[in-house]
Amino acid sequence: MIEHYCEFLPVSASTPTVSLGEGNTPLIHCPQLSNRVGRDCEVFVKNEGVNPTGSFKDRGMTVAVSKALERRAKAIICASTGNTSASASAYAARAGISCAVILPAGKIATGKLPQAFVYGAKIVTIDGNFDHALRIVRELGESGDFVVVNSVNPDRIAGQKSAAFEIVDEMGDAPDFHLLPVGNAGNITAYWAGYREYRARENSTKLPVMIGFQAAGAAPIFHDQVIEKPETIASAIRIGNPASWKQACAAIAESRGAIDVVSDEEIVAAQSWLARHEGIFVEPASAAAIAGLFKCCDSREAAYSFQKIPEASRIVCTATGHGLKDPDTIIKRMEKLKPVAATMNEVRSAIGL
Ligand code: F0G
Q: Measured in angstroms, how far is the CA atom of residue 236 from the centroid of ligand 1?
C-alpha cells in the first residue's frame, strides 16, 4: 500500500516499510442495496474487513509503524476498542518492536482480544472506557517511552487516506455519497483528506457528501456533547469523546453532509440483511453504515434524506471490520443444532428444502 501511494504519504527512501499486504480491498457493487435506494442509484461496499488483521486500521498502521521504526522507536502503545489493538500488535510483531495495548475491561469483541494476544502484545485492561484509556495513553506518549499509534498520530490518518484514493482510482471519479461509521472519528477525517487531496491533484472532478453514523447510545458528535457513559452493542464505536471530533465536523460541514444515529436494533438488523442479501459479513460497527443507508432511504427523521438525491447517484459505504471479529450477537440468535441420524433420508428431511 505504502509503495503504491508513496507520493501522498509521509515516507521517503529511508523509511523502512512494515507491511502485511494491506489495502487494495474490494469495492463490491451491491445490487440489492442499490434496489433499496432506487432511482438507478448504485451502492458499493468497500470491504475493509479483508485487510490483514480484518479491519481498515491496517492502512494507517503500516504507515505509523514504518515511521515509528524510522524514528528508532522501541515500543508503540494504543488505546483501543479492539481493532486498533489487533492491528498495532500485528505490525509491531512484524517490525520487531514491543507493543502495549490499553483496553476497556470486558468490552472487547471475542475475536479481537486473541489477536492482540497471539501477536504478543502486552495487554492491559482498565476499569474504564475507551475515552479513559486514550487519555492515559496520551499521557504515557508524552513520557517519550512509547510512540502512540492511535489516530491522534498523523501518520495513521495519512495511511487511511489511501482507501479514498483506491475508491476514486477504481470508480474513475469520486462517489456522490460516502457513508461510514464514526467512533473516534479518525476514519471520516482521513477519507475527507484523501478525497480532497485527490481532487486538488485533479484525479477526480468532485467531492462526495460525507455522512457519518454513530450508535444511538454513543453519539457525542450528533448530540454535540461528551457522552460520559457510552453504550452500544457495536463495541468498536463505543466512544463518548472522539479525538478527531473537530475534524469530523469539518468534513461533514465542508462536504455538506451529515451526522446521524442508528439504534442497536437497526445495527443488528442491517448486519443480517447485508450478509443474507449481499453475502458480506461485517461486524456490528460496520453495519451502522448500512443501517444508516436504510435510514437515509426510509426515515422521515434521517439527518440526510435520499428521497430526492439525483438519479444514478453513486454511493459508497465502508465496511470497516470483518464479521468474524464479533460473532457473539449472531451466536446468541442461532438455534441449538440437534444432530440427526447419519442417513441420506434423515438428512434430506432435515434440510427441508
Ligand atoms: N468501525 C470499526 C470496526 C472500528 O473498529 C472503528 C474504530 C470504527 C468503525 C470507527 O472508526 O474511530 O476512525 O471513527 N475503532 C477504534 C479501535 C476506536 O480502537 O479499534 P473511527
A: 5
User: For residue 184, how far is its CA from the centre of ligand 1 (angstroms)?
Assistant: 6
How high is the pLDDT of residue 3?
87
The grid coordinates listed for 133 are 484509556
Q: How far apart are CA 21 and CA 2, in angstroms?
A: 10
C-alpha 84: how far from chain center: 10
Mind giving me the DSSP string for 290-303?
HHHHHHHHH-TT-S
Phi-psi region of 120 (alpha: psi -120 to 50; beta: other; left: phi over 0): left
The model's pTM: 0.97
Q: How far is the C-alpha of 302 from the C-alpha of 250, rounded, in Å? A: 20
Q: Which atom of ligand 1 is nearest to the CA of 160?
A: 13
Per the listing, cell 440468535 goes with: 333
Give how far Cα 125 sits from Cα of 58, 97, 177, 239, Å.
Answer: 22, 21, 38, 16
- Give the containing element (helix H, strand E) for 169: helix 162-171
- What is the predicted pLDDT for the residue at 8? 96
Alpha carbon distance 182, 188 (integer Å): 7
Residue type, 308: K
d(CA 90, CA 92): 5
**Regions of the chain short of the pLDDT cut 50:** none
* 235 vs 291: CA distance, rounded Å: 16
pLDDT at 160: 98
* Closest ligand 1 atom, residue 79 Cα: 19
